Amino acid sequence: MASGRMASPQSSSRQSSSLSSSPMSTRAQSLQVDSVQRWMEDLRHMTEVECMCVLQAKPIGVEEDSQQGELIVGSGVSAGDHVARNNLQTLLRRALVVSTELGKMFQRLEKGRWQRVHSTAVRANCHVRSLVHEYSAARNTPLEMQKYEKSLLEKCMELTNITERCLHTDDEFFLKSMREAIHEILTDVSDSFSNMIDMALANEIRVLIKQIESSDSLHTIGSAISNLLSLTQDGPQLCSIIAKEGAVVALFKICRQDRFRDLYAHALRTVASICCVEEGINQLEKVDGILCLADILTDDSSVEAARAEAAAVVAQITSPHHTSTQHLASFLESMHDIVTALIKLCETASCGEVFLLASAALANITFFDSMACEILLQLNAIHILLQACKDRQRVDTPYSKDQVVTILANLSVLEQCASEVLQEQGIERLLLLLGEKPSSSSPSEGAACERVQQKAAVTLARLSRDPDVAQTAIQLKAVPRLIELCRSPTERNNSDSVLVACLAALRRLAAGCPDSIEAADHQQLIKPRLVDSFLLCSNMEESFV
């Protein structure tokens, strides 16, 4: 905002000089006076000498970057949702700038670079004052936030003054005492600024939620949801603020109204993002969100996109990473319907993303209740999942295969699973999964491949309790592949978890068919304690093979 205001009179002057010989010159001169008056009025709020020095270094022209740095959107923007989006994005950008400056101050303070400490304090002071002034002009600032603003501005001024004092002395004792005082003030400034930004964001979020709750316009509601979704991508802290302000409640109200069916998928995607934090899941539980998800999943008239996003919410709230499982009590009441709908979605998925979301939800569900595994067996899930693995349109990445093999691993604890896997030629599929390798250097893809290999070995070990499975696996040359994974670190991407799983599967096969293992392999991989074999294989060089 500062650079734009500083440029106003000068840019107007340029414009008027080019028009001086035309009939428009009088009007141009009038415009110039008006802009100067506005600029001078604004300047009354920015009287700090240090701030003026910074402002005078700004470019004369109003460039695109400076426009993007504005907090208040120009009067030419009439759509309220566009204003809200710009306010949010700019608030986040400006907050990042201030946070970066404060971070630099901490670093330079530790190194005793006093000139740079002071110059950074001046810049941070300018940015904070500009942000506070502009935001107050754009919104009716809540009283509690005004108190934070006043305190923050006082601390920023104190920080600027105290760092300036350090420029005029070489007294080490004085500078040491000042360093401690500045560090304390800087910490207070950082905390106060974070709290103020959280309040400002909460204020903006409340505006968006009000739009969702009070508007009948699909466009306005959709735009507000888009803004919320964009905010969720900035981390768990923002998701917590969004959840506390009641976004989950507002979004489920949308998902319960037929007239907003076109917004279901968009709203549910936002809910899934918010539910990465416990506050989001708690809000979902309070509004019986699980029942709403079950209704959408089981409604044949719901479009695939809405059912896929409902599956994404299920996957999120059933994630093993959540410490609290209290919300799962109500989930069990609808579990049969949800599991049935999810396996059907896996079967009919039109693309890999839909299959991934549905299978991820199923994989998580099979972790916390054995009844889900029994339901899946009754629903012919093994056939559906193994058939999907042959369809590259549905299962096209290691991430999808990870979900499939996770479900198979959890189903394999049930005795009746073995016969169905044999019937569907599932052992062949497991051996293919043992050979899963990344197609790129992406760390996440490499990690997914490791999980696929590990869970395929675990599944094979569990199923090999059945003599028929063990015999089939040996006939399909599972033993040489498992030995290769044990002895060759690169084959298992240097993964210890894959090594342990392969050693366990190998020992299970050897227990049922001792003749399938050669003497040297038996001596190193079967006979010793598991930990000794693990240490031997984990220390092997590639040339050993």
UniProtKB/TrEMBL annotation:
InterPro entries from the UniProt entry: ARM-like, ARM-type_fold, Armadillo, Insc_C, INSC_LBD, INSC_LBD_sf, Inscuteable
Gene Ontology MF terms in the entry: cytoskeletal anchor activity
GO CC annotations, alphabetized: apical cortex
Biased composition (Low complexity): 1-25
Domain Protein inscuteable homologue C-terminal span(s) in chain numbering: 94-545
GO biological process assignments: apical protein localization; asymmetric cell division; establishment of mitotic spindle orientation; regulation of asymmetric cell division
Pfam families on file: Insc_C (PF19427), INSC_LBD (PF16748)
Limits of the Protein inscuteable homologue LGN-binding domain: 31-76
Location of region: Disordered: 1-32
UniProt-recorded name of the protein: INSC spindle orientation adaptor protein
